[in-house]
Each structure stands twice: as C-alpha cells, then as structure tokens.
Write a structure and sequence with these properties.
Length: about 100
C-alpha cells in the first residue's frame, strides 16, 4: 500500500488471520517535525488511539509506531499526520478496501 504523493509518513497494514498489524513508517527522508495519531477500530467496541511525535526522518522504511489488534472481520485504521508548515493529512485503511 503506497503513501500519498510527497508525504513523508505512510501507513502499512497487513492482515494475519484474525490479527491486523498497522505500522506507521517514514516513506522518505524529511528534515521536518510534527506528530501523528493512529486510531484503530475492530468490531463495534474495540477502539484504541495512540499519539506520537517525530523529527528529522532520515531513513525510508523506519517504523515510527506499530500496533496489532483483531477479533473481528470488520476493522479500520486511521492515521492523521500533522507536519510543521504543511497541511494535515489523513490515511485510512479498512477491511472494506479492495
């Protein structure tokens, strides 16, 4: 799953049986700083959210956050990224993606 054009942070989601693994990764080098929030939802009652900050992304592929969750065939992961001096952007992956 690719990142948005020119966005230094992306979301990679993999399904392994009943578990979903979501990784927030550096898509490329960026002398920037900011923060992100990753929200996960599985079924109707299992919801989590984690927030983290970053600065000076030097290596593409560097994992900034990793979450695992599961228990339902109906799931959704949302990544909201705020980078200093840029517009906020959102990446969403879900069980309904083709």
């Amino acid at each position: 799953m690719s990142s948005l054009p020119d966005q230094p942070i992306s979301l990679i989601v993999e399904k392994d049986g009943p578990l979903v693994s979501a990784r927030v990764v550096a898509a490329g080098a960026c002398a920037c700083s900011g923060h992100f929030r990753i929200e996960s939802e599985s079924g109707t009652s299992n919801r989590t959210a984690n927030t983290s900050s970053f600065s000076n992304l030097s290596d593409a592929g560097r994992v900034l956050s990793n979450i695992r969750f599961g228990g339902s065939d109906d799931w959704r992961v949302k990544l909201i990224v705020s980078i200093e001096g840029r517009d906020e952007y959102t990446v969403v992956r879900s069980s309904t993606d083709g």
